[in-house]
């Protein structure tokens, strides 16, 4: 069944609103959707293409793709595209489910204020003198429900009494209306910060040695990235030391074999 333009538009909407995605991950996901061919189903941009278009390093793109896979938004087929590149398949059902959750939150919030029957605005405390033109803050606000305030002497009192307390919501509806959007756990936040620290430290340490920096970036694979992040979590600066030590050990081992 062909993918419609509405589904790709919905995918971009979900990506922009996803609180669990970082800025880099949103940009990579948006670029993958943009490369998707609705007629053929082909989506196989190279990592270098994505990195050049988005303005990121190849390693950052690889980490973002792996994260999008873990979240169930894309499926990667190794060497499934042209020129032995990886092929990426958007999981449209995941995007539809995410969009449904967003709409549920919007409906719950709207229902909370609709049940009260009064405006959520904290605007003017009463209507302007003489019932002149004013800003209406809620489509269903009758005049007498806005606020019971006495007018100046000499004006006609035309205000009906207001209930002393707001209508209580049913328990299930109250819980749904107060449900918060899922947020990134504190452990994930700490890991992201730790990875950013050792990455920044590496860049600063080798700012004048571009060739060495590029070689080390290419040397860092997924297991080493995870190990460096865990080391940085335990002790600041340990992530950079671990990467440099692993790189030196690998260079020494290669040099020994060459001899």
From TrEMBL:
<feature type="region of interest" description="Disordered">
    <location>
        <begin position="106"/>
        <end position="140"/>
    </location>
</feature>
<dbReference type="InterPro" id="IPR036390">
    <property type="entry name" value="WH_DNA-bd_sf"/>
</dbReference>
<dbReference type="Pfam" id="PF13730">
    <property type="entry name" value="HTH_36"/>
</dbReference>
<protein>
    <submittedName>
        <fullName>Helix-turn-helix domain-containing protein</fullName>
    </submittedName>
</protein>
<dbReference type="InterPro" id="IPR036388">
    <property type="entry name" value="WH-like_DNA-bd_sf"/>
</dbReference>
């Amino acid at each position: 069944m062909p993918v419609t333009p509405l589904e790709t538009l919905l995918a971009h909407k979900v990506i922009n609103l996803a609180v669990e995605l970082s800025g880099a991950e949103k940009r990579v996901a948006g670029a993958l959707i943009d490369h998707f061919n609705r007629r053929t189903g082909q989506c196989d941009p190279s990592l270098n293409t994505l990195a050049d278009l988005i303005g990121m390093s190849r390693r950052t793109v690889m980490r973002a793709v792996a994260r999008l896979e873990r979240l169930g938004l894309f499926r990667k087929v190794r060497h499934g595209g042209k020129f032995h590149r990886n092929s990426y398949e958007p999981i449209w059902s995941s995007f539809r489910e995410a969009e449904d959750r967003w709409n549920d939150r919007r409906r719950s919030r709207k229902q909370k204020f609709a049940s009260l029957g009064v405006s959520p605005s904290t605007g003017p405390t009463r209507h302007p003198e003489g019932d002149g033109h004013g800003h209406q803050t809620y489509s269903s606000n009758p005049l007498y429900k806005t606020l019971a305030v006495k007018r100046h002497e000499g004006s006609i009192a035309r205000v009906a009494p207001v209930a002393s307390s707001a209508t209580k919501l049913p328990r299930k509806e109250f819980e749904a209306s107060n449900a918060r959007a899922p947020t990134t756990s504190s452990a994930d936040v700490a890991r992201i910060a730790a990875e950013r620290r050792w990455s920044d430290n590496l860049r600063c340490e080798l700012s004048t040695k571009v060739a060495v920096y590029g070689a080390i970036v290419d040397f860092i694979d997924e297991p080493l990235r995870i190990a460096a992040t865990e080391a940085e979590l335990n002790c600041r600066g340990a992530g950079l030391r671990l990467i440099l030590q692993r790189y030196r050990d690998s260079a020494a081992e290669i040099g020994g074999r060459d001899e």
